[in-house]
Amino acid sequence: MTSAVGSINSGKHIRAVTMNAPPVNALTVQGWFDVANAITAAGNDPDCHVVILRAEGRGFNAGVDIKEIERSEGYAALIGANQGCAAAFSAVYDCRVPVIAAVNGYCLGGGIGLVGNADIVIASDDATFGLPEVDRGALGAATHLARLVPQHLMRALYYTASTITAQQLLHHGSVYRVVPRENLDEAALEVARAIAEKDTRVIRKAKEAINGIDPQPVHRSYRYEQGFTFELNLAGVSDGARQDFLARTKGANG
Question: Its GO biological process terms (predicted)?
Fold first, then answer.
């Protein structure tokens, strides 16, 4: 299987990890672990001072590959997807250097987990963010959406499966810059260069210190959410929701 993730050196002390899983960047179980491994490896490289997490294609990330879950017997793919997402989200948060998320187009489901755990978010002016989980019989990443918007707005977005724009997140302070799509990579690199020129020994300790004073236990709270996804699956609720979603997607694609 070809990895859905690539790592390239984007300049002195800067590593770019690129998601590229056509057609919509919905990642398989292996794809989520690929993201986790690439980010962890970059952070463990002494020559890397900052990581940019970006994507090719129409959107940044469409979450979990639901088709893989539906093709799988039993719960193996579901468990794998949940473990893979937890690993990828944790890799971003625990990366020893700052992670900049450069978000283009749509950022949905697991994409919110990646962005919510990033240190800095740069977005294109066509970027939208949302958690469609309730429409797909699942729960998760409210932990990370709550890092992007205030509590009551998070609840409204979560319950309605609505999206929010990059410009709105800029207003809330969770997106650092919004730029035209063609300028996204350069905008992310501009911020990355400013970090990369610092003493990485100080920046790495700064990352560790900031995580240490974080009031939200992101690892534990996300795993708590995932437990309810398993409950919905065991109750048979999620199967119908996933099948309805795939049927709508097939109909929309002709």
Answer: fatty acid beta-oxidation
